[in-house]
Amino acid sequence: MKRYLVILLSFMLLLPVQTVIAQVSNVPKPPIDSPTKPTPRPRSNPRPRPNPKPKPNPKPRPNPRPYSRPQSAVEVTFSCNVEDVPVFIAIDGKQPTDIDEIFTLTVGSHKVRITADGYATYNTSIKVVEEGDFFYFELDEASEYGEEVTDDGEDEGEDDAPATGTYSIDEVLAPPVAPELPPEDTQPEVSVLVEDPTNAQKFLNDTITVNGVTFIMVFVPGGTYTRYEIPENLDSVIDVNVTGVPPAHRVSLSNYHIGMHEVTWDLWYAVMEDSIVDYYHNRPYDEATWYDCQQFIDKLNKLTGKKFRLPTDAEWEYAARGGNKSNGYVFSGGNNIDEVAWYYENYEGEWHEVGTKAPNELGIYDMTGSACEWCEDWYNWPDANENTPPLVNPKGPLEEQKNSRSGNPMGRTIRGGSYGQDASMCCVFQIYYANPHKARYGLRLAM
């Protein structure tokens, strides 16, 4: 009986607890607040865009100018007596540029202004002709107050040439005009003197004396020529199979000077101040490495205050061919090598003094035969041919290159052939290279 009472009592006690649990489970969960986007403010009416301005009607183009035939143009070169500082030239009021450049000017009159630091500014006028022109100027040193020289150059009524002014090499070389002759039946005999071209440009050459030894630098007017070109008459002059010559191509050069003769033993020892007495005096020095040449030139420049150097390959060949006076010879100065050169077949085992054979068209000696001559350039086959534009003042590569066939390093360019070589190696277009450390070649100065 007690057992049943205990069960009944327990049941009665559990009943309110279940009710409470049921009530708790039926309590609704509070809602989760989710973020809501704010209501956007109404956009105000945008400002009305103004009507675009109408584009003005374009101005009518003027009628094209009537066709006029273009004026012919020629290459013109300039030079002057100033060598120690840069010289600038302004033509017809344009931007000044280096005077050594080659200019293309139309035929007719032009205004020229020349400036150089420490020299009087020079104003003049020139007249360019169809054949091309070269103009040379003498600049005076400026006073401490500065000055400016003006020469019209075309004023009428002046009998005497100005102290400074323009000189055309073509006018210097032109023969005098014969006087007008009377009728044929009374004609007297008339003789006209034609001046030797090699004498006409002597006033442009430069004579230098170093420690008692004098040498001459020949002025070479700039121009354009075909480098490595083989003369058409080669077969009639010499029997040679031409190989190893780069493709012919056009080259344009500025004015420069080159030695009338190769550097002699006298000049070498006058500059190097060597005490050796037993040497070959006025014969070409031919025991120089390329680096010896650089040392010699460095000392010569310090002694003279000038800027000597070795000629570039392009400069050497242009001078050897006779520059702008070239007659197209196979050798420098002629087609008969015995008249212009000492080489293997006529030197008879004896070295000869410089200048004992005939000169070329520019008055330069021994560019064929005698001693092989170093050039400034590393040996190089330019990436050019007869169809490419002219190369302007070209120089070889800055670094030594290798032979594309053998892979062996090449060297510095040498030119001209020597007394130890036959005629086929002495042609003006032939080019070779040598180890710059090899002391068996000569040199010719340039500046």
Q: What keywords describe this structure?
A:
18 strands; 447 residues; 4-stranded mixed beta sheet; 8 helices; alpha+beta
Mean residue pLDDT? 76
Global outline: globular
Helical segment tally? 8
The value of Rg in angstroms is 43 Å
- Report how far the terminal alpha carbons are from each other: 145 Å
Give the helices and strands as they follow along the chain. HEEEEEEEEEHHEEEHEEHHHHEEEE
| Major pleated sheet | 5 strands, mixed
Write out the strand line-up for the largest beta sheet, numbering strands in chain order: 3-2-5-6-8
Structural class: alpha+beta
What's the total count of β strands?
18
Strand content: 15-25%
Share of helix, binned = 10-25%
Show unreliable segments: 14-70, 154-198
List the helices and strands and how they pair.
Layout: H1 2-25, E1 73-80, E2 87-91, E3 97-98, E4 103-106, E5 108-116, E6 121-128, E7 133-137, E8 148-151, E9 167-168, H2 169-173, H3 197-200, E10 206-210, E11 213-220, E12 223-227, H4 234-237, E13 249-253, E14 256-259, H5 265-272, H6 290-304, H7 313-320, H8 337-340, E15 373-378, E16 391-392, E17 412-415, E18 432-434
Parallel strand pairs: 1-7, 6-8, 13-16
Antiparallel strand pairs: 1-4, 2-3, 2-5, 5-6, 7-9, 10-11, 11-14, 12-13, 15-17, 17-18
